[in-house]
Every structure is written in structure tokens, then in C-alpha cells.
Amino acid sequence: MSRPKCPVCGISVEPSKTPSMPFCSERCRLIDLKRWLGEEYSVPDRLADPDEDEEMPEPPAEDE
Ligand SMILES: [Zn+2]
To answer: How do the residues of the chain divide into helix, strand and coil, expressed in percent and rounded to 5?
Structure first.
């Protein structure tokens, strides 16, 4: 049980099924990229830290 979590939305990522690691999806990868480009850096007050965020309950199963 050592699944990495998407740094953007914080859901569990399954490495073997996720080509966009460490992000859960291509979309989250772009969101993170935008952050780096400065879209959310205008007020460097308190950025959301995924690790300090509230824990999300794990889904029981991830079969499709
Ligand atoms: Zn994500």
C-alpha cells in the first residue's frame, strides 16, 4: 500500500496504469505546469500543499 498521490488533486495514482505519473492524468499534469508558469504565484501567501491536505478516503476497488 504505497501508492503515490497526484500532487494536483491528491487522489491515489496507480503507477502501472498511469503514463502521466506522478500525476493522475494528463489534465493534472497541465494544471501543475500552469502553476509553474506562474498563474497561481501572484500571491505567495499560502499554497495548497497536497501532502498536508485532508486525507481522501481510498476507493474500495479500482477495476474498470
Ligand atoms: Zn490528479
So the answer is: 25, 5, 70
